[in-house]
Amino acid sequence: MSRLAAGVLALVVLSGCALVPPPGVVVPVARLAMLNEQRVPGGLCAVFDDTSTPAAFRESLRDYVDCARESWAPLLEAVGRKAPEPGVYLEAADWASYCTGALDEEDAGMFCIADGSLVFADELQTIAGDSDLAAPSVVFHEYAHAVQQELGMVLDTPPGDPTRRIELQASCWSAMLMRTLVGLEATEEVSTALVEDAAAGSDSDHGTPESLRRWTLVGFDATTIGECDTSRALESAVA
Ligand SMILES: [Zn+2]
Q1: Is 148 part of a structural domain of the chain?
Q2: Residue 23, in any domain of the structure
Q3: How far are the Cα atoms of 115, 171, 174 from residue 66, in angstroms, in the given order?
Q4: How many domains does the chain have?
Q5: Is residue 6 included in any domain, yes or no?
Q6: Which of 4, 58, 86, 233 falls between 20 and 30 A from 135, CA-CA?
Q7: pTM of the full predicted structure?
Q8: Residues with CB under 5 A from ligand 1 (ion)
Q9: Does residue 191 fall inside a structural domain?
């Protein structure tokens, strides 16, 4: 049951993620340029969270990850890559991920560079109970980091501008997939809620509220993947 259709939205603080450093890899600029030309995929994900139990919620997170993978698969195949199939962990319920326990208190989820898994905070279950935007937007942001890694982008960048470009692209790609959610009406009310949720996650790694608003809106309105290419943006746009 989608509460979005009823226009009931809760603003929640959704912080992005901590990134556990791996060895660095080379940025394949040509591959990203090819990906940039791809069009935003059609709607493959439905809005549905079961927040009744941790186990049920974890399954909902897996469902969002699965449809994110299906959305990205043809785009990545077009540039010779494969859509990642990350493990999905709910922080306190699971202890299998290399990064379980590494999640900062204010973070809703993280992409674990070390083992490619996605780890989500237990609090996300409560937040998702109040807002249908919460779980998919966090999942799509963290999955975007898995896509960045698959593309060979360096994720263990130094704090500051390089990290913000990675994070803002992930937020932009998340908003891009949010727009395609079946059951989500792409109204101004929804885009405003998404933009303000993103702005609330502002910090030195994720960008100013203005940067987060800008890239979330760019993603929500994007027709091609490349519109979210923060690597080409002016420094002032990724502050
Ligand atoms: Zn992130």
Answers
A1: yes
A2: no
A3: 18, 18, 14
A4: 1
A5: no
A6: 233
A7: 0.88
A8: 16-17, 167, 170
A9: yes
